[in-house]
Amino acid sequence: MKPLIWDIPDDFKERHYMDYNWRPMEKRTSSSIFMQGKHLPCADVGGIKCSQDPKEYDLIFASSVLPKEFTKFDCLPNNSTAPLVNQKVLDILNKLCSNDIQAFPATIIPDKGSRNNFENHDYWVINITKKSEAIDRDNTEFLYLSKSLGGDPYGTKKLVLSEYTEHFLSRDETLKTLKIVSPSLVQAFKKAGVTGVQFIEYKDYS
User: How is the beta sheet containing 198-200 ordered, strand by strand?
Assistant: First the structure.
């Protein structure tokens, strides 16, 4: 069976429950460090400087809804580059693929200007530490900003995944925004009734 893609559920696509862009860039850990498919911390990941000490990571998300609303979901759709999951999901990942991930504690607070007042610590940012060559390059049509200049592809016009992935959870080697999930991990999520995430076949990806 072909792997699947970790995606935001259709009914969440019009809005992000968690906003990672609410603070000035110089005061916030860039979520790009979690796109590299590498173990952190490190001094330099893909040319992006990151903290040597995970305690210094500034993983703060802003929510437009109260905890009683967002804690209904095990995975929180967000506009960072990393999954945001609760302890239930983290337990599944640690059981099946602890070598494929790292977990960093996240803080969720109200949107700027909100009259709400809370600080939630029930969720974890998941750094996917493995990369895989999931894309079938012979049958995929890539999109380039400047192919003639040797630039990397930023997306696909037609995406086809390969039949095999060696990891439960990984980022694609070429398109690091793609979070690749093995069918066995998908089944584990479904069996546990995990909410807030959907897994799609490559033909449905856009």
Answer: 131-132, 169-172, 179-181, 4-7, 198-200
